[in-house]
Amino acid sequence: MADEPAISAAPRMRYPSPPTALRWLRLQLKVLSAVAPELAFRQAWKLFISPRRLPIKAWEAPALVDARRRVVDCESGAVAVYEWGPEAAPAVVLVHGWEHRASFWRAWVEPLLAAGFRVVALDGPAHGASAGKQATLVAFGGAVQVVMHTVGEVRAIVAHSFGAASVAGLPVRLPDGAPLPRLVLLSASIGPRAVAGRFADFLYLSNDFVARFAQYVEQATGRSADSFGVAVSGPGTKAEKVLVIHDENDEIIPFSEGQEIAAAWPGAVLHATRGLGHNRILRDAKVVQVAVSFIG
Question: How far apart are CA 81 and CA 105, in angstroms?
Fold first, then answer.
């Protein structure tokens, strides 16, 4: 039997003093795993695909004020879409990460408009103003694909974290099958197995969770979990040029995974940052400028 792919080493997310709710959840899953492992897995899976709708942050509140808004019907339910700039201009589609929303792209809108592009952002399924309570990689990527069919000419997709995994893992394609001119991936994980490993580590789940996770994904989708890997499936986007941006101090997804993606994806370029972490990379003016220049 072939060895399973190794899970990239990840920063261990530890609280100095874990909240009571987290300690209780870990204990509950531990006990349940001992007496009813299948039920424990299903409860963990439900947690895994259920994003929290977090309060709007002060810096993102003005982001959508001047956006044109519409709703697109997807298999997952109604998806909120926001658009800026001339309708005839080529679009840059922005795809947010887990528990984020379209407004997290506030720092990107003006620079992209100034460069002559139209900007399109969406709230993924179960995020922001979109419908639903649960979101899988397939559902999220599927919603992005549906939105792409409504946009017209697309110059680039810029995707962060879970959004990057969804765009590359599905993969999302231009409606007519033409090559996507530019693809920018920020803080992307190498694949679902690595994400499941970090989730299991955080909740102190048993060692067989990742294997059970991979089995469940294959049963549900007809594809192996590893087939959704960013560098495995991503070239199916037919992206002509790919830019991978990852911070060396990313506290959620290790920098080594960005390195792996860039090394495994033919022609992809890695741009490393330092000191921005997993989320502040989205609001850094230098990062935005690097990406806008690459797209242009």
Answer: 13
Summarised one tens digit per residue, pLDDT across range 252-288 is 999 999 999 999 999 999 999 999 999 999 999 999 9
Our CA angle for 228, 233, 234, nearest 5°, is 120
Rounded distance, CA 195 to CA 254, Å?
11
Q: Are 199 and 48 in contact (CB under 8 A)?
A: yes
Q: What is the pLDDT of residues 220-253, one digit of tens each?
A: 999 999 999 999 999 999 999 999 999 999 999 9
- Chain segment 188-215, per-residue pLDDT in tens: 999 999 999 999 999 999 878 999 999 9
Main-chain phi, psi angles of 186, to 5 degrees: -110, 130
Which residues neighbour 154 within 8 Å (Cβ) at sequence distance 6 or greater? 90, 91, 92, 93, 148, 174, 180, 181
HEC assignment per residue over 160-171: ECHHHHHHHHCC
Q: With a cut of 80, say whether residue 162 has pLDDT above it.
A: yes
